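User: Teach me something about this protein's shape.
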Amino acid sequence: MTDLSVANSASTTAFDVEAVRRDFPILSQQVNGKPLVYLDNGASAQKPVAVLDAMDRYYREMHSNVHRGAHTLGDRATAAFEGARETVRNFVNAASTREIIWTRGTTEAINLVANGLAPRLKAGDEILVSHMEHHANIVPWQMIAERTGAKVVPIQVTPEGELDLDSFNSLLNDRTRILAITHVSNVLGTVNPVAPLIEQAKKRGILTLVDGAQAVPHFKPDVQDLGCDFYVFSSHKLFGPTGIGVLYGKAQLLEEMPPYQGGGEMIERVSFERTTWNVLPYKFEAGTPAIAEAVGLGAAIDYLDSLDRGAMEAAEKALLERANQLVETVPGMEIIGTAANKVPVMSFKIAGLHPSDIGTLLDQQGIAIRTGHHCAMPLMDFYGVPGTARVSFAFYNTLDEVDKLFTGLQKIQRLFA
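Assistant: First, the predicted structure itself:
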């Protein structure tokens, strides 16, 4: 069998991955009689004890509705809820918590912005997205375009899986109103150069939204440095709970946008003659919010901040490097997306094998990956494939798990060969 031994790099030995893994109880289990190797982090990352404990403590010690309770539990819940908002504000370096809106996730955040910007659009206007977008950053814009007469225009990508900057430059024109682009591709792992794109857009008065769902698990964004108008991400990919996400928006734009939903927290005063809206950020937070989930997201960010970020990123880089080294050990394996600047995500195909078969057979060996079109059908069409197998690493994965993945792929390849 092919030798998979590769010496650990100095960067990974500086990061105590075994200590970190003990913070994630789910990783210690067996699946199909094998130790779990969880490599589906791009779909949803696992949760540390710090998050589980924070949510448990909320429910055990302080659960109440927030903001208007005239009692101690209400005060505790409100303090924890708004404390989490401040944690998120600091995480993205927003100017104010007024600019941090709780949503159900990235998808709802994009829909909120698209609907809020619809009044600015008219027939003939153009919305730029990239060919590598997740459906959540395509479909809402198509729905708004159909409503307003605007047009969604895709920026091309190169065969290597990088944004085609010539395509971007050629598409910018006087009709361009919105640029909505992913920070990191969920399929390719490509890190897009969003800052210079935003700078060019700003010169033309184009509004910008960045989908950060796949970026935030790997590095901290700085929305003021990026200069974007909106930045969105989900908690569950950031080692936090499901059911909650974040919309950062510049306060002036949020003030000008109409509410997305009505009822509850988003109102100032209601009468049958006229209803007025609450101040930011509550104007966009109708109904009882996901309080425990916000607390959990805050705990996830606090946990990440307790780690050595530089060592963590170096460890993730080593995982991807190891995987790239081992590709040649699997005959017929081809990587989809070879951008120079990537997070640790690898999409691939193996000649003669269907991606779903690869996923099923790896699962029998305790290895969890993702297969299919990854909610990126236009990108699959670009590469001429129905789908791919995708492994997405997190800082709690090990070089040994990379080796197990490729040992598993070798077994599958030999079985079908």
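Now, about its shape. Residues 1-13 have pLDDT under 50 and may be disordered. The radius of gyration is 22 Å. If you'd like, I can walk through any region in more detail.
User: That's plenty for now, thanks!
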